[in-house]
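Deliverable D4.2, example record:
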Amino acid sequence: MSSSLRKFLTFAPELSCAGLCIALSAHLLLAGAPAQQPPAQIPPVAALSPFIDVHVHMEHVDAERSVEAAVQAESKENAAKIIFMPSPFTVEDPARFDVEFFLAAIKKYPGKLAFLGGGNALNVMIQQAVSSGDAGPAVRKKFRENAEEILRQGAIGFGEVTASHLPSAASPTYQSAPPDHPLFLLLADIAARHGVPIDLHMEAVPETMPLPSNLKSPPNPPQLQGNIAGFERLLAHNPRAKIVWAHAGTTDNTGFRTPDLCRRLLAAHPNLYMEIKVDPLNPGKNPPLAGGKITPEWLKLFQDFPDRFVIGSDQFYPEAGSNPQRWQAVVNLFNQLPEDLRRKIGMENAERIYFGKH
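Output generated by the structure prediction step:
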């Protein structure tokens, strides 16, 4: 039953029987049976306690508008702070940008917003180095200079960079790079020296495998390269480097980013952290919510590693598209956590990892 018809029937008792028949016939004639009604809007529900969203993006056409939309959204979300970052771009992406695009807009709100950098300046270099096979001294020197400049401009870390990224609206090119590539190892050393995190997007591929049947080639390759062993080499390379694996619970197109894999990696690598994301349109193959309720496996993982998770909604501002928004979807999970766990995952972990607070 359409929403307009429901509204009509709400007031139908006020009509006579004949009037009801005439009005109902007119309603159906005007509406037309094939007409599709927009989905009902779900009122936003704020987080039960404050949280820092460590992973959001902006509309590349208008940084000022995106920043203003994020600041206005903080109160309805109960977000204490929002951290922007550029998507992981390739040189072919016509809309690529980095911190210079949004620097001035974000710096207007030092208590409300912060940012990471490198989605263009660093990720492009990594992908080019993989393609060319050149990660020699000149490339490493330029990469280091770019990374240091990003921090001088006020970034509190590096991101979003990727070792495995399927095409998306924001990053339409398939990307793959060994997580232990020399430039990733160099970035880990730079991050460790400055005490800042690296935000890494990576599909979980335990070993080289055919492309899953739910994905198309092209644009994806017919085979995905194994990356978990290389990821562990990156984590072990410099244990002081804080590596934040983005999108736990959602970026799982292979089916291997399970709570069990996350548990093994978290237990083995104290410098590994994970963002929690819930995407209402693309929940992934091991989603943390089932029927709107947090699953026991994911809840136990959060409880067993309470200091290693943060909230990273991957929300784009201004808000558009899906309902609920990504921030609302992850808040629905966040609100189901026990109060002490919400405090750690929502605020304390992000303050320690991103802002150096102990």
